[in-house]
Amino acid sequence: MDDTIRRLKELTDASDNIVFFGGAGVSTESGIPDFRSVDGLYHQKFKYPPETMLSHTFYETHTEEFYDFYRAKMLALDAQPNAAHRKLAEWERQGKLKAVITQNIDGLHQKAGSREVLELHGSVLRNHCTRCGKFYGVERIVNSTGVPRCDCGGVIKPDVVLYEEALDEDVMARAIHYIRQADVLLIGGTSLVVYPAAGLVTYYRGRKLAVINKGGAGSGLGAAVTVLVIVCLQLPEDLGTIVATAPEGWFFAVSGWGSCRRPAHRPADPCPCRTAACTP
How far, in Å, CA of 132 to CA of 38, rounded? Predict the structure, then answer.
């Protein structure tokens, strides 16, 4: 087994207080595109930029266009949990994993069996009337055309945090609590560039942090990083298979157990901090 994967497996095997912080990359193996990769949503051509169409302002001023885009690009109701979702649910059943903190809105963690799931950006599965507050399942959105309306005439709005909207304070407080108390913080499938969610990582106080992601991670890691593993988007049942499944050219680096502050670098590149522990 590769030394990096061995270290990661040692961290997870020895801990009964793991917290997982995940993003869109966790669900790509389930067929749901992410946002910032080459094939991601933000690289596709639309009449308006996706960030604009997913904003509160656009929702208010171009409501019908918002829902046309939302139905076409934000709903993937046939998607099924992948190995990452299943492994995390298994760890929770074993008493090893305390919580999943996710930026995803697809509900796949719960579908895989995870119970303590903190959805920072809400869920497409929950929808409410903006006038009377009546709850609707996602089917009401799917089966409607134009602007979905409640029986009272109000607009049915997805329980999804749009750009310009605040995250739920209770969910944020619970996420901070879990991250602060975590022994191992495992980050997967996120570039850590979407705030305020990415800023939650800075609350981690431990020294056992691992990142599994396609491409580099953002600056939200801070000084707490001791192990940085950047490999692929899924967390296979056998962690040792990660390397074998990682396509050529993906980042793969480890910062060792030292104090390196450098984000991931390719194995061929020397680390600027020049510490022995940080040399890939």
Answer: 41
Instruction: Return contacts of 43-47, CB within 8 angstroms, 24+ apart.
Output: none
Question: Is the distance from CB of 260 to CB of 277 less than 8 angstroms?
Answer: yes
Q: 41-93: per-residue pLDDT in tens?
A: 655 667 888 889 999 999 999 999 999 999 999 999 999 999 899 999 999 99
CA–CA distance, 67 with 57 (Å, rounded to integer): 13
Cα(200)–Cα(180) distance, integer angstroms? 9
pLDDT at 278 over 80: no
> Is residue 207's pLDDT more than 70?
yes
Q: Please give the backbone phi and psi of residue 7, each rounded to the nearest 5 degrees, phi first.
A: -60, -45
Burial class (CB within 10 angstroms; exposed 0-12, middle 13-18, buried 19+) of 104: buried
pLDDT in tens, 213-255: 765 554 445 423 333 443 333 344 443 333 333 332 233 332 2
Helices (H), the chain: 3-14, 50-53, 56-61, 63-73, 83-93, 108-112, 138-142, 169-181, 242-245
Secondary structure (DSSP) of 81-97: --HHHHHHHHHHHTT-E
Backbone angles phi, psi at 126, to 5 degrees: -115, 135
User: Catalytic residue positions?
Assistant: 121
Cross-strand pairs, 136? 127
- How far apart, in whole angstroms, are the C-alpha atoms of residue 99 and residue 144? 35
Q: Which residues contact 202 (CB under 8 A, 6 or more apart)?
A: 220, 222, 224
